[in-house]
Write a structure and sequence with these properties.
By secondary structure, this protein is an alpha/beta fold. The chain is built from 14 helices and 17 strands. Helix content is about 40%, strand content about 25%. It is globular. The chain starts with a strand and ends with a helix.
Length: about 400
């Protein structure tokens, strides 16, 4: 069965809030074998919402909406759904009891506006929002279903997992179909060059398979997708794909680089630390984002000012004066300094010019020196990573992690 998502809220369309809900929902639907065909974002406008509902029902069997369920005047989704399904708002004892229990220690919240939360469309099925006051409302239209969820991400996620997906499974037991994806990551090759290598193989793919190229920050994810019950065909083509890209293959899973590195270190019982200047702690944030990372990631020094490079990491003053902060000499001292401070097996250091100011003819914005310290020696390399500050720092983190992975595979 096909599904569509409609996200509701002016804040999404002016860029004030990033729509993370639909991405999370798409993953959960995919896991359940429900094909998501379209995501639409609309204003808090009755005509706009109604038109989006009409269009979605023309294409999909299941429509999910998020947003517009709060108690304030700008939240109009509940009223629009009443009009759409030709019904009226009525008090729900179930929702009232839940809301009163939810706010039993917050009498200031139990006011006349909050009381509107337990008004629901008369012909809907109420699904409990365990962590919020906005009811989850399910409607049946002929053989199709619409479920309206809160826009607050945590409320939506709990509601989807605990209420919506089980309800859909009960209502539409045959809705699931075979969906399978295999993803690998390559680096060191341009997307167009990769496409030429894969052209003959890709042109011969069976109709049930689709290959997608997903480039990002110097890497390319290749996703091979199957939408039929033919796993053996997927397995065969997947093995062929891995063989074709083996010279550029980083990992044959959909896994972030920092986790690939962490698992390599964990398997060896080894550790890593970081010294960061231009990346400003982003490497540290990536490396400690995963549960269990304390077993292999021991810490970082964010040495943005030269005084920190000198006084904490031990970069000699004459090196900074002669070669500058963005240099091979400096980054080598940085990486060896943090490795000694943290007593780790490996270390990564970054120092660059992220801009938009600070560049020179010899060292333009985007110049980044990196170093990797190992038990067997230190390696350094210079990169030119673009001109935008966000682009440069993101690419620098990617290059730093890729470099460490490659060193571990070659020498570890």
């Amino acid at each position: 069965m096909n599904c569509e998502i409609i996200t509701i809220g002016d804040e999404l369309l002016i860029g004030q809030v990033v729509d993370t809900n639909s991405a999370w929902m798409a993953q959960r639907l995919n896991e359940r074998g429900i094909v998501l065909k379209q995501i639409t974002s609309v204003h808090d406008d009755a005509e706009h919402i109604t038109a989006a509902l009409d269009e979605a029902f023309n294409r999909a069997d299941i429509v999910l909406t998020t947003g517009g369920l709060g108690p304030t005047k700008d939240d109009i989704t509940k009223k629009v759904l009443c009009d759409y399904f030709h019904t009226r708002l009525v008090p729900s004892k179930q929702v009232e009891e839940h809301v009163r229990k939810l706010y039993k220690n917050r009498p200031d919240v139990l006011n006349r506006l909050t009381a509107t939360q337990w008004l629901v469309p008369e012909n809907c099925t109420v699904l409990t929002n365990r962590v919020g006051s906005a009811p989850i409302m399910a409607f049946t239209l002929n053989a199709k279903r619409l479920i309206s969820l809160p826009g607050v991400p945590h409320e939506m996620q709990v509601g989807m997992q605990e209420q919506v997906l089980p309800w859909l499974t009960e209502q539409l037991p045959d809705m699931a179909q075979t969906i399978a994806h295999r993803t690998l990551l390559v680096s060191g090759i341009a997307e167009s060059s990769l496409a030429i290598i894969l052209e003959k193989w890709e042109n011969a793919l069976p109709d049930c398979l689709h290959l997608a190229y997903l480039p990002k920050d110097g890497t390319i994810r290749l996703r091979l997708s199957l939408y039929e019950d033919a796993i053996d065909v997927l397995d065969e083509q997947w093995n062929q794909l891995k063989e074709l890209v083996q010279d550029y293959l980083v990992v044959d899973e959909d896994k972030p680089l920092e986790l690939v590195l962490g698992q390599m270190l964990l398997a060896k019982g080894q550790t890593i630390s970081t010294a960061e200047s231009c990346t400003g702690g982003r490497l540290a944030a990536l490396l400690n984002a995963h549960s269990g990372s304390s077993a292999w990631y021991w810490g970082s020094v964010v040495a943005y000012d030269n005084s920190v490079k000198q006084n904490v990491l031990g970069v000699p003053a004459d090196v900074l004066e002669t070669h500058g902060a963005v240099s091979e000499e400096t980054v080598r001292y940085m990486v060896e300094g943090v490795r000694n401070l943290a007593h780790t097996d490996y270390a990564i250091a970054t120092s660059g010019i992220a801009g938009p100011t600070g560049g020179t003819p010899d060292k333009p914005v985007g110049t980044v020196w990196m170093a990797w310290a190992t038990p067997d020696g230190t390696y350094a390399e210079c990169f030119h990573l673009g001109s935008g500050r966000e682009q440069i720092t993101t690419r620098a983190c990617t290059k730093a992690l890729l470099g460490m992975i490659q060193i571990l595979r070659k020498f570890g």
